[in-house]
């Protein structure tokens, strides 16, 4: 075989196959062990010039001397070790490693850094809700959900740093530090003003305190809801009291509103005196007008029924129509 042919074959092999060092696959690069909200995640980069079909196997170890099996023959570039084992402890120290595989070939193991979960785990920002309470705002804080355990079980002395400011005046923000309660009332606020709030979880021995949440805003009003409730209660109480008094003392109240005292004689004489108006006297002395009327006669069944005589006397029903041969008299 000529030298040119051998050079061509070696060039093609280099292009279509992953990088090989002494007959072994090149290992993954940038292997690192991370933790976010108490998970244990092993992440790496693929070898330079890796061929398609390359898979990876991971392992990890804690306090025990040997490695435990993690993800096997996966094509992704990360492995969540907390999903595989219930033995992961929130206070443990862990190291991971990964190797690449292609068919029967395997790369060397590449080891990651070592992390301690309760010191190195990155804590996400808390969830913050605001509730307007008149001229004050109530801040409600919810801790992030951990993959292992809970924030208050791992960090017993965790506190909150609360920062708040008027909307559009971030440079004049005010702060409250080392707050242990997850419900806080901001009372030194102006009425009818929009305030924005951010909260950060602070842990003394953690290397990665949480990032503050995205600012949330709420507006104050003029008075607290309990003031309106008290006013309503007072109105109802007064109304009920007045009704009770009206029922219990109805007779004295009736006597006051409708007294039985007789009118003075001169009032009575004035009210009973006949009017002396000329029109009234003319109406009283005038003669009643004569009534003008005509006599009415009913014809029923050939007999004459005068006004005031019952129709039954004619021997016919009121609904009977007279014969066509009958004539009026």
Q: What are its keywords?
A:
329 residues; alpha+beta; 4-stranded antiparallel beta sheet; 7 helices; 19 strands; elongated; disordered N terminus
Question: Care to describe what's here?
Answer:
This protein has helices at residues 3-16, 117-120, 151-154, 225-248, 250-257, 265-272, 278-285, and strands at 20-21, 24-25, 29-34, 41-45, 55-61, 68-69, 78-80, 93-102, 105-106, 110-116, 127-133, 136-142, 159-166, 174-179, 183-186, 194-202, 216-219, 297-300, 303-306. With 329 residues, the protein is α+β, with helices and mostly antiparallel strands. The strands form 6 sheets. Strands 5, 6, 8, 9 and 10 form a 5-stranded antiparallel beta sheet that branches. The longest helix is centred in the C-terminal third of the chain and has 24 residues, at 225-248. The model is unreliable at 1-23 and 313-329 (pLDDT under 50).
């Amino acid at each position: 075989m000529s030298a040119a042919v051998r050079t061509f074959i070696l060039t093609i092999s280099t292009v279509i196959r992953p990088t090989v060092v002494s007959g072994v696959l090149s290992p993954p690069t940038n292997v690192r062990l991370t933790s976010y909200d108490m998970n244990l995640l092993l992440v790496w980069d693929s070898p330079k010039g890796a061929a398609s079909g390359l898979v990876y196997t991971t392992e990890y170890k804690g306090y025990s001397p040997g490695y435990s099996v993690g993800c096997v023959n996966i094509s992704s570039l990360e492995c969540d070790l907390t999903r595989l084992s219930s033995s992961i402890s929130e206070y443990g120290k862990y190291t991971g490693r990964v190797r690449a595989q292609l068919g029967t070939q395997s790369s060397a193991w590449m080891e990651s850094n070592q992390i301690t979960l309760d010191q190195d785990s990155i804590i996400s920002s808390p969830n913050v809700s605001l509730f307007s309470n008149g001229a004050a705002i109530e801040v409600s804080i919810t801790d992030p959900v951990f993959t292992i355990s809970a924030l208050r079980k791992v960090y017993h002395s965790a506190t909150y740093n609360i920062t708040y400011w008027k909307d559009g005046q971030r440079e004049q923000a005010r702060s409250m530090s080392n707050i242990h309660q997850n419900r806080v009332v901001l009372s030194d606020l102006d009425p009818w003003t929009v305030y924005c709030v951010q909260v950060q979880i602070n842990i003394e021995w953690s290397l990665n305190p949480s990032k503050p949440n995205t600012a949330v805003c709420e507006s104050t009003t003029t008075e607290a809801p309990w003031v309106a409730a008290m006013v309503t209660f007072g109105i109802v109480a007064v109304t009920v009291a007045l009704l009770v008094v009206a029922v219990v003392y109805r007779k004295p109240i009736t006597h006051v509103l409708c007294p039985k005292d007789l009118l003075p004689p001169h009032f009575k004489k004035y009210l009973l005196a006949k009017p002396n108006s000329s029109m009234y006297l003319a109406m009283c002395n005038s003669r009643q007008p004569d009534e003008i009327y005509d006599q009415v006669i009913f014809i029923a069944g050939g007999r004459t029924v005068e006004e005031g005589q019952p129709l039954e006397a004619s021997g016919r029903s009121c609904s009977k129509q007279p014969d066509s041969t009958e004539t009026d008299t």
